[in-house]
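COMPLEX REQUEST
Ligand: pyridoxal-5'-phosphate
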Amino acid sequence: MPDRSYFDWNATAPLRPEAAAALQAGLAVVGNPSSVHAEGRAARRFVENAREQVAALVGARPGDVCFTASGTEANMLALTPKLETADEIRPRDRLLISAVEHSSVRAGGRFPPGSVTELAVDAAGRVDLDALKLALAGTARPLVSLMLANNETGVLQPVAAAAAVVHDAGGLLHVDAVQAAGRIPIDINALGADLMTLSAHKIGGMKGVGALVWRHEGIHIADPLVRGGGQERGLRAGTENVLGIATFGAAATAALAGMAAEAARMRTLRDALEAGLRAVAPRAVVFGAAAERLPNTTLFAAPGLTAETAVIAFDLEGIAVSSGAACSSGKVQPSHVLAAMGVSPEIVHGAVRVSLGWDSTETDVQRFLTAWRTLVTALSKGEGIAA
Ligand code: PLP
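STATUS: Structure written out below.
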């Protein structure tokens, strides 16, 4: 048995072997992709090859991929009032987001705080399309941002249906697909997302690389975040992170190739894990269980369980899980996602997230369930968790 069982893939994934190979190959590249000599052209080939690979992951055109330094940065780049189309160059007057978005979207990008509206979600965390319609009716040039899959629960948003509503109202739709990418098939055209955010490290590329993807050429960001050398079609200045981008491309290709088999395997493991959780603690709740979800994610709580205790107890047993939102880890904060889903505060404090990946095994799940049994037994002596 390996020393550790890593069950925090929604926080970040290990480097895929294919990405490690791309990194190794990239180490030999000496040139700057903007240089015209052979060394520069070799570096450029790495970047452009990766652009094709990342575009293929979501059915986009390579020319519509802009590399950034993170998913967070791609969200920040996209969420600006200065999104212009051929028909409309006046600033977007309102940003509409769901109440369960990642903190990098909740920060509102470059919209003034008073111009951001949070939309209600249902008990599974899905945006209420009627609330969306209502909010759109009160805006002239809206931008809507919705995540494809939630980082805490894995629940999928009805993005294609929302896109139709947004477009009917003359709005634009940005989709944060950071957690969904590589785990479920994504076609940016079928979804109707005008802009889409991706992040390399969630799919097995290096940390610190992201991308903003366009569905069509008709949208112009008039205020790029990083200005200077004109890289990435003037949208993101700075010499490209050639190695990181190469790993992003390799990870995208590997994820796409193995997606169906990996998803089926993860779903089987995840379902076994959830069945085992409930067998030990019948009152355990799996959030969003009835909704369409990513195949790798379980967010659960049980009466008497506190997330801090659980994370530490699992860690001591060699298992990495997370509590609250992963991106605020280091500090356990109650989940805004569960609060928006109407979960009571005492349950919210006990929520633990288990997220699996392509190298998770049945042995890992068994180790988790053994640790869970021990934890529940210990807690039940004091608090009746399994009662
Ligand atoms: N969006 C979602 C849904 C995420 O889960 C994360 C990271 O956890 C991000 C955006 C930010 O991505 P990055 O870590 O590349 O900044």
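REMARKS: The pocket of pyridoxal-5'-phosphate is lined by residues 70-72, 102, 104, 147, 151, 176, 178-179, 199, 210, 326-327 (CB under 6 Å). The longest strand covers residues 142-147.
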